[in-house]
Amino acid sequence: MTPLPAPVDAAADPAAGSVRRRGPRQDVARNKAALLAATGDLLLADPEAASMPAIAARAGLSVATAYRYFPTIDELHREYLLDVLEQLIGYARDLDLDGADLFEAVLGKWFELVVAHGPAMVLIRSREGFLTRKARGERHALIIDAAWGPAVRELMRLDGVDESLYDRALATCNALFNSRELLDVHTVTRRAPSRIVRDLTTMYRGTLRGLAATLVD
């Protein structure tokens, strides 16, 4: 992990207030990044110990500062997961591919992120289903839509799946390729990631064709 600039904690060090006044946005971004990095480190190393005080201490910030940015530990955990998903969006946005090549590239990057962050990500789960969260505009669901949408639509186009089934196709993608299941496949099969990605793409395309068969005029 690339070392982050030292966080600035005005709550713990009053002298830091002058620094904060010169660049509050930079300080906020730096402190939040330090908290997210500490969250990932602790969730990977010792999930039971990943309390807000422990995360704040690892980030070099006061507990009061940590709570100012993230009022609850659940919000901090969710932000950590969203930060990983944002990396997928950035990658997918720059791809100049189409068809199955686009989907396999996005899935390959997601697989890479899951291997790196998955042991922490699997501890963060929503209590509601994907379609419910997407319908109400929940940020996590919308980011998944942004990251996976173009690739899913390319496979739908290839396999003749009607656009009206997009939400269900995306929900199926989210279920099949969630971090817990991908980690399980990676651990149990011990196959090369590129082979896993090809096999899972083939499986998902079969699921899409089955989904198309359920469309009733």
Automatic annotation (TrEMBL):
DNA-binding region: 51-70
Pfam families assigned to the protein according to its UniProt record, in alphabetical order: TetR_N (PF00440)
Family annotation (Gene3D superfamilies): Tetracycline Repressor, domain 2 (1.10.357.10)
UniProt keyword annotations, A-Z: DNA-binding, Transcription, Transcription regulation
Residue ranges of every copy of the HTH tetR-type domain listed in the record: 29-88
InterPro entries membership: Homeodomain-like_sf, HTH-type_TetR-like_transc_reg, HTH_TetR
Biased composition (Low complexity): 7-16
Region of interest: Disordered: 1-26
Record protein name field: TetR/AcrR family transcriptional regulator
